[in-house]
């Protein structure tokens, strides 16, 4: 109780510096939360994009409808247990897919009547994680004319995401280091506030740790409190932040908002930083004699 | 209990505040340290309170040579001492009760039991501080603060009580209240070392005394004859 009262002494004697430090720490933790959530959610998104391949298995135009089922079976066999969606795109579906971008062409092809099946490609559209080996097997299926495969279609995006991911991690670490530095400096500035109490406690037979405990407890309370406030703010603001991020690019839409655990982690992070500052906190030059 | 052998203390090479003092105190003794301003009384008491070490000679408390004790022994020694410094040293934003209770909690009673509380209240009452028990130390007068420091030292139930001018800022009534409490503590076994300028106290409560002058013990009497 005495230690807690002494630990809160700077709020009485230096309220402005305490309040500003508290505000700064809460803001920094909030930013750390945003960068941390980016660093957590981007790898998931990146891995998903890395595994999102598209292949088109073009069929011989002379193939009849009865051949489609055996070819589909062979395609599924070639893919093994890999989760890949296999959809057949016939001439109608193909024309529908280009309707928006090539309306004139669609009209011309449609005018050909039954012959349109000869001029439009018939193919299976594959989407999922595909390997070169699978593609090779697909090419060997009888009735398959060609296989178009785009393994590296997201390469520039993935590189950008990786860069943002590392930048988020670096900023996250920098913010935490900055917080420890601020608390350590505050500890030094506050040392004189605790000096008299440290001397009295030491003189009455308290240990060095007992004497310095209030001075060390102060940054723990400050950072813990800032952690609590920033966790609350993060809980409120993160859906908005995630929505803004998602609106930047369709690729970011799968990122989603970070759930409850990181919110609690933000409070724990504040406390942990306070404890670090506790360990680095200087004494007020208390004599051992 | 206390043994000073050829003890000297100097803050500069040339001038010694205390010069080759030897003194032995047995458990339960009551000793006045007398002398004029600058005689070295406060320096001697600071050393007895383990705040400073001698420049030369040796100082033993409770059988331990202070120059050789480790940190934990030093803490144990300090827990057995009640010290009323001349400049009082209270925690300014703590109330009177909290200042006294802090001393008790550091002496071992982490949880203030009812009996400890009532002992503190009794002390505060005897020192006319009961009505000020919730007042912050920063709002006390010099005399009141001095009495709080005395209560803090006594509440710890020390084996050795060192008081530097404990009645220097007290009126007549409070001076004798303080001396009455110190005498009672002494009767119940506390060794007492008291520096004072007050000849009236020394005359009325005749005890052993050591008179310092220019850092030396000039007169030492078993029963002070001032």
Would you mind describing this structure in some detail?
The complex is a heterodimer of chains A (289) and B (226). Chain A is an alpha+beta fold and 289 residues long. Chain A has two domains: 2-48 and 156-280, no CATH class; 53-153, Alpha-Beta Plaits (2-Layer Sandwich). Chain A contains eleven helices and four strands, in the order αααβαβαααβαβααα. A four-stranded antiparallel beta sheet of chain A has the order 2-3-1-4. In chain A, helix 3 crosses helix 11, helix 9 (155-203) runs antiparallel to helix 10 (208-248) and helix 10 runs antiparallel to helix 11. Residues 284-289 of chain A have low confidence and may be disordered. With 226 residues, chain B is of the alpha/beta class. Chain B has a single domain (2-221), classed as Rossmann fold, CATH 3.40.50. In chain B, 34% of the residues lie in helices and 26% in strands. Chain B contains seven helices and ten strands. Chain B has helices at residues 41-48, 71-79, 96-106, 114-126, 142-155, 172-187, 199-204; strands spanning 2-10, 16-25, 30-35, 56-61, 64-65, 81-84, 160-164, 191-195, 208-213, 216-221. Chain B has a six-stranded mixed beta sheet with strand order 6-7-8-3-9-10, sandwiched between helices. Chain B has a four-stranded antiparallel beta sheet with strand order 2-1-4-5, with helices on one face. In chain B, helix 3 packs across helix 4 (114-126) and helix 3 (96-106) packs parallel to helix 5.
